[in-house]
Design goal:
Layout lengths: L12 H19 L5 H20 L4 H16 L5 H21 L9 H24 L11 H13 L12 H10 L8 H24 L10 H29 L13 H9 L3 H7 L2 H10 L8 H13 L3 H25 L5 H26 L4 H9 L4 H13 L1
Helix pairs in contact: 1-2, 1-9, 2-6, 3-4, 3-5, 3-6, 4-5, 8-9, 9-15, 13-14, 14-15, 14-17
Length: 407
């Protein structure tokens, strides 16, 4: 397994980079007044279809089918039940794609299937978010305007090219508002330029870490703890690079996320790497997806919402053994975190005890995050068993035992 080139994070990067000039062209045409609102929707939609065809080849059909089905449901089902139908369609189709592609003998060098699966997962986010907006009356669909006029913004939202291969999740209302106003002011390249510079720094750190791990073949005993932590840091840097490029592309196209609503800011990066709370890490990691899961599952589940949210996240990611184990382990650790920290923080009264408490729990959080990331990215059941039988399981098991004692 090449830890530096995980699944869909880096294989789709060349296509994401190639979309930057077209995003800048779109914003320039809007700012110069050459594109009407309808032309903007068409530009974004056609750009998404072309990008899907180039990045996914024939697998792009797997993306177009649920997108068209979701639009048909949104236009034909009443607001009271539209979110149920869209959810059922998207998750059924996505699960079939995950199972179908995982059971085929695919070329490991071919990134198109993984890119298609990533785009389908992002489509599920947008379609279910839009369906909930319609259900709750946030987005009224005015069919009196005509079927084509009503369908075009929906199709454009589900497939617009700046967010086809990455996030963060943008609500339909914000998409509409920014599509209407993207030509009001000339685009500034300062913010996306800073993000691209940050991406260069993250890529440099990745390359340095890859070089440092290149000569190490294995580990034994407690020596596996820093080894697994270093490999998990490589994974985190790949995710950070992915999110920074995504947000830069959206900003170049004129679709800036709301303040604090993006997936990764400098403050978020600092929080992720310095927090001593697993619950804080879970809320900050991939923030737009966390908010989507909270709205879709956590706030609507009458019993055990935390466990249900992480279980659904495992389903949404594909239900591989490593994903099921990793996300359920994450749920147990977060539940334990809510009980462990109030218990110990009230007993750490002196300054020295507080420093010892925060330092120890920070190390525990880092090692548990590393364990979960490596588990989620395990490609086979045998690799997962090796991780489970290693000394890296000590901390997750200790958190599970603490949860039982503090219930």
């Amino acid at each position: 397994m090449c830890w530096a080139d995980l699944l869909v994070l880096l294989p789709a990067a060349p296509y994401r980079l190639a979309a930057f000039p077209f995003a800048a062209l779109f914003h320039h045409l809007c700012a110069s007044g050459h594109l009407s609102l309808t032309a903007r929707y068409i530009f974004l939609l056609v750009g998404g279809c072309l990008l899907a065809g180039i990045a996914m080849g024939s697998y792009a059909v797997l993306l177009f089918v649920p997108a068209a089905g979701s639009v048909l449901i949104l236009l034909s089902i009443g607001p009271a039940r539209v979110h149920i139908w869209v959810f059922a369609l998207q998750m059924s189709w996505q699960t079939l794609c995950h199972l179908g592609l995982s059971n085929q003998e695919l070329d490991p060098q071919d990134a198109r299937p993984a890119t298609a699966l990533s785009a389908i997962m992002l489509l599920t986010q947008k379609a279910t978010s839009l369906a909930l907006d319609v259900h709750e009356g946030i987005v009224p669909l005015q069919l009196r305007q005509g079927l084509l006029q009503c369908a075009l913004p929906l199709c454009s939202y589900l497939l617009f090219f700046p967010a086809l291969l990455g996030g963060p999740l943008c609500s339909f209302r914000r998409f509409q508002a920014q599509a209407e106003s993207c030509g009001a002011e000339p685009g500034s390249l300062r913010a996306p330029g800073q993000r691209c510079l940050c991406a260069v720094v993250l890529h440099g750190l990745r390359l340095g870490l890859v070089g440092g791990l290149a000569g190490r073949q294995g580990c034994a005993g407690l020596g596996c703890l820093p080894h697994v932590w270093a490999r998990a840091l490589l994974l985190r840097l790949a995710y950070y690079l992915h999110w920074v490029l995504d947000e830069a592309l959206l900003e170049v196209a004129g679709f800036e996320p709301e303040a604090g609503q993006g997936d990764l800011s400098i403050r978020d990066l600092w929080t992720l790497e310095t927090t001593h709370r697993m619950a804080v890490f879970a809320r900050t990691w991939n923030k737009s997806t966390s908010r989507w899961l909270r709205r879709l599952i956590f706030q609507r589940c009458p019993a055990q919402p935390l466990l249900a949210t992480f279980a659904f996240s495992a389903w949404w990611h594909g239900l591989r053994p490593g994903q099921v184990f990793g996300f359920l382990c994450w749920a147990v650790v977060v539940e334990a975190d809510y009980r462990i920290h109030p218990f110990f923080s009230t007993r750490a009264t002196s300054q020295g005890a507080k420093l010892l408490y925060r330092g120890t729990t920070w190390v525990f959080t880092q090692l548990i995050v590393a364990y979960i990331l490596v588990a989620v990215e395990s490609e086979s059941f045998s690799m997962l068993c090796l991780l489970w039988m290693s000394c890296n399981s000590i901390l997750p098991l200790s958190y599970g035992l603490a949860l039982l004692l503090l219930l």
